[in-house]
Write a structure and sequence with these properties.
Layout lengths: L1 E5 L3 E4 L4 H12 L4 E4 L10 H13 L8 E7 L6 H9 L3 E6 L15 H14 L3 E3 L13 H16 L5 E3 L5 H9 L4 E5 L8 H5 L16 H12 L5 E3 L8 H4 L14 H11 L6 H13 L7 E6 L8 E4 L2 E4 L9 E3 L1
Parallel strand pairs: 2-3, 3-4, 4-5, 5-6, 6-7, 7-8, 8-9
Antiparallel strand pairs: 1-10, 10-13, 11-12
Helix pairs in contact: 3-4
């Protein structure tokens, strides 16, 4: 069996820098036409000048003959200058700005503490039509980690959208039924990315039979009912939902540690995983909408010109790890064989 779709994009990707960038970039550039590049480097990509320099490093790391465009983002801080953001958008350098609540996840210390402090930037973005990508979790110590997305929607995101309805917002890596319902309740201006792994694992995968650090990411995988809501949304064809893998490489020593890093590395086998999921849901005809069409439509871009073909056959022999100059990175393992491969 074969399936040919418009070349997909990844609307949420961590490429890192240096040797890690060199090792992981080809894994995405092989199947994907474009990706929204997360700015949470150390130090973060805050200004237009930072993004120009980072984009040049990505281009320098590009494999021969690659047909891949990094779509740059800026990391929103309380010191971000609205004029710098507008200039970066006007020149075509950036495609979005990313809001991390301070302390929410990996390298988010310079994120936002108070929405009030960034309102001038958000107002400018609304005026020029530049989308905001949001890591939608509160960071309050008294809020349970499994509730942080739902509480963020009620206490931060919904008030912000009421205050600034013209701002286009993407709820990144939505992980709950609450998130799906909230996105569906919005008439316009709100979309959501869904990761590969949140369609395939729930919290049992992380915690039952011994702790599995390679399934730990943020937002953390939730109960099965939430995974099912994500699968229904992703496979529905609803244009508000699109692929953002959140492929986030960390080396094995950094994952397999007393305080392991959050992040799942799924760039290599995402299209095999997605074909598996969409086939299970009887929705192979909607894989193209999720992976290749809905994202560009939300961002106001054309779909990629090319196509990729997936073929179903023998189990695909993915390696367990990717070697990088910084150490091995374990690939996302859905826990069963994958039979679809990009040919
Ligand atoms: C991401 C990372 O490692 O940069 N980790 C993750 O678990 N998703 C950060 C993020 O997107 O939250
Ligand atoms: Zn991420």
């Amino acid at each position: 069996m074969e399936l040919t779709i418009t070349r997909p994009d990844d609307w949420h990707l961590h490429l890192r820098d240096g040797d890690m960038l060199k090792a992981v970039l080809p894994e995405t550039a092989r199947d994907f036409g474009r990706a929204i590049i997360m700015p949470n480097l150390v130090p973060p990509v805050v200004t237009g000048a930072d993004a120009t320099a980072y984009r040049a490093r990505i281009h320098a790391a590009m494999p021969e003959g690659a047909d891949f465009e990094p779509l740059m983002t800026l990391y929103l801080t309380e010191a971000t200058d609205p004029d710098d953001v507008e200039a970066a958008a006007a020149s075509g350098l950036i495609t979005a700005v990313k809001l991390y609540p301070a302390g929410a996840t990996t390298n988010s210390a310079s994120g936002v503490r108070s929405i009030d402090a960034v309102m001038p930037v958000l107002e400018r973005m609304a005026a020029i039509g530049l989308p905001l990508c949001v890591h939608g979790e509160v960071t309050d110590h008294d809020i349970d980690i499994f509730d942080r997305e739902a509480v963020f929607i009620d206490t931060k995101l919904d008030p912000l959208r009421r205050r600034l309805p013209e701002l286009r917002v993407i709820m990144e890596h939505v992980t709950t039924r609450d998130g799906v319902e909230y996105v569906k309740s919005a008439e316009s201006g709100l979309g959501a990315t869904i990761t590969t792994h949140h369609l395939m694992i729930n919290r049992n995968h992380i915690l039952v039979g011994g702790i599995k650090p390679h399934y730990y990411c943020l937002p953390v995988a939730k109960r099965e009912e939430h995974r099912l809501a994500l699968r229904a949304a992703a496979t529905s064809g609803d244009a508000r939902f699109f692929l953002g893998t959140d492929s986030a490489p960390h080396t094995d020593p950094n994952k397999e540690s007393a305080c392991g890093c959050a992040g799942v590395f799924s760039a290599t086998n995402t299209m095999s995983c997605l074909a598996h999921v969409f086939e299970e849901e009887g929705a192979l005809d909607r894989l193209e909408a999720f992976a290749s069409l809905n994202g560009p439509a939300f961002y106001g871009l054309a779909p990629n010109p090319g196509t990729i073909t997936l073929r179903k056959g023998e189990a695909v022999p993915y390696p367990a790890k990717l070697d990088t100059g910084e150490g091995p990175v374990t690939l996302f393992d859905p826990g069963h064989p994958l039979h679809w491969r990009v040919v």
